[in-house]
Amino acid sequence: MNAGRHTEPVDVHLILRRDGKEGPEVLLSRRAGSVYAAGLWHLVSGHLNGPEEDVVGALIREAEEEAGVSIDPADVRFAVAVHHRSPAGKSRTGMFFEVRTWQGTPGVREPAVCDAMGWFPFNALPEPMVAYCRAGLDAYRSGRLMAVHFQEPGDPIAYTSGVDRCRPFPAVGTGGPDTRALFELHTSEAAAPLHHEPGFMGGPALTRMTATAAQLTVPGMRPSSEAVSPSTTLEQYAETVPKATMWGCLYFTDEDDRPLQVHSVYSPAYPWQLVGGTTDPGEHPWQTAVRECEEEIGITPTGPPRLLATVYSPPGGGWPCSTIGCVFEGGRLTAEQIRGISLDAQEHDEVRVLSMAGWKELMPPGDFARLTAVEEARRTGVAAYIDSWEWGNS
């Protein structure tokens, strides 16, 4: 029996996350100088200064010192805890936190211990990377809240797929290894208790719905005996739920706030359209809107994305799936920008800027109603929700 009680360091790791062109990205820094794991990529991280500092305070301090970004404590979200042991046999506990909102532009602030910093897609993380850091990111990406990462003597400090010591563990109430993590949602403090009964887990800011085969009986779903069996895979379950396509578009006006639309050569029923289109695999709606804008009119929106309206449509008009669309603020274009628009002749043959009264004369009633709702959302700053495409445009 040891004479003294075991103690070990606690460190904090920042998962600073943004939406990139290829999907979600994380900020990483490359260690340098005489520090441990020099030359390897790692999250912005550090140790607590002492008993007077809590883990959130340490995270905010390290973010400012290492990357030059300011973080509000209200924007910090717990992601995962990792109990780690290095190849030298020293153990520690790491607390990983996700942050999606911050102030400042990330950059190297401590060149003596960090010689590079950049954004990387979660599905294309750089090498070499500290194995401890990679264990936390892998657990985070899998939706697990805790992992053990005990390396053995002789293991490399850098992550190697053939020597992966990460053992993620499920959270209480999530049904163990057979849990199906179906989706995540953001909810308010007041609404959070309403989600617990059907199986949502987590705090009010971010709750995860998880369900085993026996738990898939949330309101609005078929009874679990009809939905899945214990051997049902996530892919098999996905085949039983309704399908939907996504689209994203941009609402542009001229400097007099008159809407800009393009004329379709392939859709006589919906002749005048906002700039945009259907999402490609792996895209987010904003990414779709940017890509379509570049392809259709040769303009690249810079963002940040501001949602004006969400449009839902059930199957109809010959289209077998539901559709969900996002209309984003495109901004005001100058007369020179409008004159410089180059259309793809296979999709559109004309661009026009008209007053709302002018558009009313050219558009089917349902289309014009949506345009009116989008214009109202832009004017008031309150996003619109439109729950029918009205295929017949009656």
Automatic annotation (TrEMBL):
**Where would I find the Nudix hydrolase domain in this sequence?**
5-146, 242-376
State the UniProt keywords alphabetically: Hydrolase
Keyword Hydrolase attached: yes
Does the record bear Transferase in its keywords?
no
Coiled-coil stretches noted in the UniProt entry, renumbered to this chain: none
Alphabetical list of Gene3D superfamilies matching this protein: Nucleoside Triphosphate Pyrophosphohydrolase (3.90.79.10)
Q: Name one Pfam family in it.
A: NUDIX
GO MF annotation terms: hydrolase activity
Question: What is the name attached to this protein's record?
Answer: NUDIX hydrolase
Q: Report the source organism.
A: Streptomyces pulveraceus
